[in-house]
Amino acid sequence: MDDVRAGRDRTQASGLGALVTFLVIGIVIGSVLSWALLFGALDVSAPWIDSALHTFIVALGLCATVLVVVIPTSIWAVRKFLGSAKGSLDSIVLEVGDAAKAYQAGKAPQSIEHVQRAALEALAWYTPRAARRWVVQTSLALLVTLGGLAGTALIFRQTLLLSEQNKKLQEQTSLLKEQNDKLDLQTISAEAAQRRATLTPDLIALLQIVASNSGKSLGEAESVRLAAYSLAATPYLRLEVVEQDGKRTPTLSERPQSTERGQILLALITSKLKPPPDCIFEAADLQSAQLDDADLSRFRLPFVNFRRAHLEAARLNHAILDYVDMQESVLTKADFRGASLVRADLSQSRLQWARFDGARMPKAKFIGSSIGGASFEEADLDGADFTRTNQRTRSAGPGGMPFAGALNMSGAILTNADFTGAELVDYNNWDGAIVGSPGDGPLPDFFPRGWNGPPAGWKLVKQEGHVVLRRLEWVPPNEDGPEKNK
């Protein structure tokens, strides 16, 4: 009795273990599929899920086909095996009774024969019922699974179609945005053309007046007319064509500019005439202008576009050049002493031997420019960007080296400046340059970025609330040991 109970317990335990195993497998598969659908990229998981759905549906179809073939075959085989067995409970009871009577009568062979018949009758009775139960349960499972997979497949297909629709809508939105941008460009271009058409007649007349007074001085009437025109010729956005990777693309100018003010200014400079004091040249367009040796000293030229201009040996001392665009310009030997260049952009320019002594240049940009031989003595360069600057020149310098000359940064304010990636030589003049304020760290506060310490041959010295650079003093060798620096 105990053995029977133990066997039953083992059977129940094994059944429970199988149930738990299938439950865990189902949870894992369901979690993976849910994550792929809900959190993963749908375009990545879609092919895998679509393939899995196709595989499962084909597998279910094969199972149904197998059932259709196996069930009739199994019924035929069972009937052939059971022979004439009736498969009823009465037959089972009669055969068991006959087996018992034969055993009591001592007829063992007849008893065994009746037992075999009883077993066949029991098998014939149980097999059809078990088969029908299995067929019904399996059919229901297949129908439920097929229905669930069909619903899932339809929902998944609908999701894919909606995703494709969203992509088409996004493409349509992008095309509409591009169309709107082109309409904006067209509108701005039309407004600029209308403005130029309005200002051109007066511009031609003023250019003739300036040309006729070349080398002389303007009269009061001409000066007033020039000042009034410069006030009317306000900056405006223009359509520019930018070439990138061999493709020409129309785009808006980065900031408003006034071509008319630029032409008037260029005419005055060419005619060697001082502009009237009331003339406004803010945001004038002098892009690619040839202004070598031009005298622009004390001119007020904020926001002027000097991009790709030639200003070699030009005189711009004490000029107001705040926010000017001088990118990719030639500024060799130009004189900016005492000028104001707040946030000016001189990136990718040639600045060899230019002079910026005493200039105000906070947050100016010199990115990638050649600054060999330039002088920044006592210039305000707080926050200036010297990233990737160099001291090279196109022609070989002394000794065959491509070196334009040493920098003069004596007394310059270099707090918060950025020298990251700058290719600077070791014998520049940094004497008295302010590089920060005393702090608690190993380096001063507001120390230039890109430096791990003072340049070679220089030391940090506290002076009047600032930290400045001073040249190291070398002590000659003596009997106490080798030479030292202090």
What structural class do the secondary elements suggest? mainly alpha
Low-pLDDT segments: 395-400, 479-486
Question: How can the largest sheet be summarized?
Answer: 3 strands, antiparallel
The appropriate CATH architecture of the domain at 286-486 is: 3 Solenoid
Provide the succession of SSEs: HHHHHEEHEEEEE
What's the CATH class label of the domain at 286-486? Mainly Beta
User: How many strand units?
Assistant: 7
Roughly what fraction of the amino acids lie in strands?
5-15%
Number of helix segments? 6
Overall morphology: elongated
Distance, first to last CA: 102 Å
Give the rounded overall mean pLDDT.
Answer: 80
Return the CATH topology of the domain at 286-486: Pectate Lyase C-like
Helicity level, as a percent range?
A: 40-55%
**Gyration radius from CA atoms, angstroms:** 47 Å
> Main sheet: which strands, in order across?
3-5-4
Blueprint (SSEs and pairs):
Blueprint: H1 2-38, H2 42-82, H3 89-104, H4 108-212, H5 220-232, E1 239-244, E2 247-252, H6 259-270, E3 434-436, E4 458-463, E5 466-471, E6 474-475, E7 484-485
Antiparallel strand pairs: 1-2, 3-5, 4-5, 6-7
Describe this structure in words.
- It is a single chain.
- The protein is mostly helical.
- Among the domains are: 39-177; 286-486, 3 Solenoid (Pectate Lyase C-like).
- It contains 6 helices and 7 strands; from the N terminus they run H-H-H-H-H-E-E-H-E-E-E-E-E.
- The strands form 3 sheets. Strands 3-5-4 form a 3-stranded antiparallel β-sheet, with no helix packed on it.
- The longest helix has 105 residues, at 108-212.
- The chain is elongated.
